[in-house]
Amino acid sequence: MKYYVFHRHESLLIIISPSMNNISNSGNDAEVVATLYQLQILDTAREEEFDNIAILAAQICETDSAVIGFTDSKRFWFKARVGLRETFTEIPGGLAFCRNAVEETGIAIVEDTLENEILCDNPHILREGIRFIASVPLIDNQKLTIGYLCVFAPTPRKLSEQQANGLKMLAMQVTSLLMLRIELLKNSVDNYKEVEAQMKTIFLNSIDAVVVTDKEGLVLQWNPKAEEMFGWEEKEIAGKYFHKTCIPERYSDSYLKALKKSNNNNIGDANKSVEIKAVDRQTNEFDVAIGISPAIIRSRTYYICFISDITDRKRATEELDKQKEFYENILNNIPTDIAVFDSNHKYLFVNPSAIRNVELRKYIIGKDDFEYAIYRNRDTAGAELRRAKFLEAKETAKEIRWEDNLKSPEGIPFTHLRRMFPVHDKNGELTMVIGYGIDITERKEMEEKQSILLKKLSIQNTQLVDFCNIVSHNLRAPMVNMLLLVDFINESNDVEEQKLLVSEIKPVLDNLNTTFSELVESIQVKEDVEAKIEQISFVDCLNRAMEGLKTEISSSGAVIEVSFDKVPAIMYPSKYLYSIFQNLISNALKYRSPDRISHIKLKTIRKNKSVILSVSDNGLGIDLTKHGESFFKIGKTFHHHPHAKGFGLFMIKTHIEALNGKIWVESAPDKGATFFIEFTNQPLCNL
To answer: Starting from the edge strand earliest in sequence, which strands make up the sheet with 273-279, in order?
Structure first.
């Protein structure tokens, strides 16, 4: 490397690099400015790549500051800088002091600016306190000097050969960055042209009419689809007002308002279209949807209108609306509850039969049963049931039926028969679930009454059969007795004997009357649904029954043990409970064992919603293997006792079953017997 001294001033040292001998004259400011604009680099933001090179230049040359700048005819502007004030961004007038020297030698070094006749009075150099400058030119591919890599120092100094070489290599790196920038810009231009070609293709082949107007509404561009839709060629429509030529006058204001609105669109309103009437060249009106997008290009406002002919869609929509109105009128006026759900159990439609209140019908759309229950301050149990049924219909793809027991706002219970039908598309995907409900409260009441009636008839039929058997058995002997007595009276001529025979008839008649009364009482149906149900104390009812059996209890010496602590009371007709106590205790006393003192135990317990009453004794017991199937039949007796007629157990069984209860027995011969009575659907009772 050779060193030459620039003779205009002894302090200006010129370093010449042989690789830079072919640098062309960079004095052609017009070419330089054109290159800089091509690079699009003047007055751009700072970039990390340039900043890093400036930092490295200052470190290599051991200076306080460095810049990478570009020069036009008026200034030297800093693209990157380090160690300088933020406001120091350029040097007006450029670096003319070293242009010629640099272009001849490759690098210019000013060891002391105060001794340089060009820089000694430069106000910018003086203000920044710069005493040392070294500059390397930035050469483009046309051999034009478009800028410099400079290092500054606040004190006079020299630059070593290694530092000078390093500075030049960094300058070459800046040049590489600039060449890369040109290539990127070229690619951007090529991409722009490609995008422009694509956009033109889309514009010309769009299935919608595309119209470009200025802010006044004058047509600037008009694609082939617009020519087809409106009947005007582009050259004919260009320069005409779109809203005056293609929009009926009565809709012009709507179109202009849409234009204005598009300028002030929020993000949520962007690209919304307006549906209005349009008119073609032959003045035929048709329905269109116009989407308007404003564009600002070089400070000028344009409107791009995308126009679709929606005549067929409008007609189809109107037809669908008519059909929808038709079917909704039907659905809204049938007495059946109708509800339609989406695949997530959200309501799509509810008719007035399901929800009478209009506001509530509007509220429930898009909600589910849980949200509705919470909104109405209702228990969510019904919502849980409906959700389970919905999921069952969804998973099984089958109709689901169930009975829904509800209460009206007035607290009146009612029952609905519910059904859900899943509806699927052609691909088998669930699209909706249709649910409907029918109020079957009256039908359920009728069914319950029919069930009770059938039960009564069945019992009565059985009782009639039993009654016939009992009559044939229990009344035949008294009747035969009476016939014989009558025959004897007719055959006797002795008045006294006749009187005696007549007197024998009365006991027979009394016995016959008693037997007949007991039979009638035993076959009377005791399942009277209107029997008064009230809260009864077990102890009070038992005491009343024992009062009537006081003599038998006293004479037998029986011990009666009571345990009603767990369940002291029930809801039941008092006459039925009294009959149960009276018959079971009476039987326990009647069939006590002669070998031991009678011991009777009465106890109550709760089992779920039922109350169990048990009555145990240590009497003669019963052979259930022999008598189990006919145990509670009318007239059935198990021991030889003069007063046993077999009516008591039959009567209490009739009472208990009339109110959906149960009675059963556990027993063995000479081991006593325990009777169990289950009273169903019993609430908790507190005395």
So the answer is: 219-222, 209-214, 300-309, 285-297, 273-279
